[in-house]
Structures are given as structure tokens and as C-alpha cells.
Design goal:
It is built from three helices and nine strands. It is α+β, with helices and mostly antiparallel strands and 191 residues long. It is elongated.
Length: 191
């Protein structure tokens, strides 16, 4: 191999390595975007504690609202991105929610599969995965509606805590925030 051939081969190798590095860096940067093409801002976590003694942390980029339904429907916390105004008579944008549902529970899995409030029947694939929330057994699944939704249900005493997050694309920041919120959940210790 001549000197010129060695130089050309070296230059070609450097170009291939440079393109590969640029591709990997661009993939890394895209993975850090929030689904709307924006790099998510760092947020401070805000502690929340309910009447039932459940605690968790949520990002300060969300505003918390709550409303009480009937005994059958339970209470609901809704976390919307700050500054979002929900139009009257609208479903609103994707959000994170926690519903507290009173139930004479015999089996959390049966409740998910059979109670319309779980929305499990809207699950396209019918997958129900075992997981854990706050040290308690739980189930996670997805269902479809106005938005794709990640759902995690956990039972504590006579209540079911149903955490849900709606999203538009799998890369949406709300899914990351939802997982962080759920992973911070703590239930009161039994004495």
C-alpha cells in the first residue's frame, strides 16, 4: 500500500468516525427532548401529602387541582402543566392524575379487569404487569382513549389509588414526570 493510499484510507476512516460520533450525539440530544422538541427545564420537586397519609413528590412545573366525586367515583387529583388553561366543556390536555376510589376490594387484579373506572377494557393489548408502588404490590397497564394513557393501580386498606398519565407520543416529558411521581409514593406505616 502506497503512502497516498494510507493517507486516503486514514482520512476516510476519520470521516466515518466523525459522522458516527455526530450521529450518536444527535441521537443523545433528541432523547433529551420533551416530545414537543424542547429540552425540558430542570424542576424542583414539591411534596404532597393526602388525608389518607399517602405522600409523593411532583415537579413544580405542574399545578395541582382536586375535586371530589361521588362515593363510587372517589376523589381525584389532577396535575396539569403550569399555565395551561382548560377550555370550558373540554377534556383538556394530557395530564397526570391520582384517583382515590373506595372499594370493598377482594382482588386488585379483578377490580382492574372488571371495573369500568380502571379503563382496562380500553387496553389494546390486554397486558397487565405486576409492579410495586410504595412497597405495595401494584399493577401497571396502558389504555387508549382521547390520549394514550399509562396507568398504575395499587390498593391500600379499603382504597384503590389509580395513577394515570395521558400522552401524545412515547417520548413526551409527562411520562418521565409520571414515573418519577409514582416512584416517590409512600404509604403510611402500619403501627
Amino acid at each position: 500500500m502506497t503512502t497516498v493510499s494510507k493517507i486516503l484510507l486514514s482520512v476516510a476512516l476519520i470521516i466515518v468516525i466523525a459522522f458516527a460520533a455526530a450521529f450518536l450525539v444527535s441521537r443523545y440530544l433528541v432523547s433529551k427532548l420533551d416530545g414537543q422538541g424542547q429540552v425540558p427545564a430542570q424542576s424542583t420537586l414539591i411534596p404532597y401529602s393526602s388525608e389518607e397519609g399517602i405522600t409523593f413528590m411532583y415537579p413544580d412545573t405542574y399545578e395541582l387541582s382536586s375535586h371530589s366525586g361521588s362515593v363510587e367515583e372517589g376523589d381525584t387529583l389532577v396535575f396539569l402543566p403550569k399555565g395551561v388553561v382548560v377550555p370550558t366543556n373540554s377534556e383538556g390536555p394530557p395530564s397526570i392524575s391520582m384517583r382515590v376510589i373506595h372499594s370493598a376490594l377482594t382482588s386488585l387484579e379483578l377490580w382492574i379487569r372488571n371495573d369500568q373506572r380502571s379503563n382496562f377494557k380500553l387496553s389494546g393489548n390486554g397486558n397487565l404487569a405486576s409492579t410495586e408502588v410504595g412497597g405495595l404490590p401494584a399493577y401497571s397497564y396502558q389504555h387508549s382513549g382521547l390520549y394514550e394513557t399509562d396507568a398504575i393501580a395499587v390498593a391500600h386498606h379499603d382504597k384503590i389509588f389509580l395513577f394515570e398519565a395521558g400522552w401524545l407520543t412515547p417520548q413526551d416529558r409527562i411520562r418521565y414526570d409520571f414515573q418519577n411521581l409514582v416512584s416517590s409514593v409512600q404509604f403510611p406505616h402500619e403501627d
